[in-house]
Amino acid sequence: WDHVLGYWKASVESPKKVLFLTYEDVKKEPLGCVRKVAEFLGVPFSQEEENRKTVEEIVKLCSFESLSNLDVNKSVAKRSERPVSNSDFFRKGEVGDWVNHLSPEMVEKMNQITEQKLQGIGFNFH
User: Which InterPro entries does its entry note (predicted)?
Assistant: First the structure.
């Protein structure tokens, strides 16, 4: 948590240097987030690109469905330097699905840790 909060604080203190987006933000407003990233990088979309639906195409190409269907991400082979297969990084692509992969006790512990770490700092990811 500390490293994530460090990036969030840096984005608040130096918004021109650090852009902080949550998975929830990207799932809720994908077009807006892609535009925000482009603007942050100093390459906003031109009117022509907007008219050609470039932003929509980027969102489509980067969607959970597109990425999870790439052959490289379907691989179940494990490598010695990384004993996790690529397919392990993809579940459903849904916000909050993590609770379905933990026991009720683990969920409660995660909620306690999250509340403790985020208490009083003004960051809320819900």
Answer: P-loop_NTPase, Sulfotransferase_dom
Distance CA 31, CA 68 (A): 19
Amino acid at 28: K
Q: What percent of the chain has pLDDT over 70?
A: 76
pLDDT digit string, tens, across residues 103-121: 889 888 888 888 887 777 7
Is there a contact between 27 and 51 (Cβ–Cβ < 8 Å)?
Answer: no
> Which CATH number do you get for residue 59?
3.40.50.300
Task: Give the number of domains in the chain.
Answer: 1
Q: Determine the pLDDT at residue 41.
A: 97
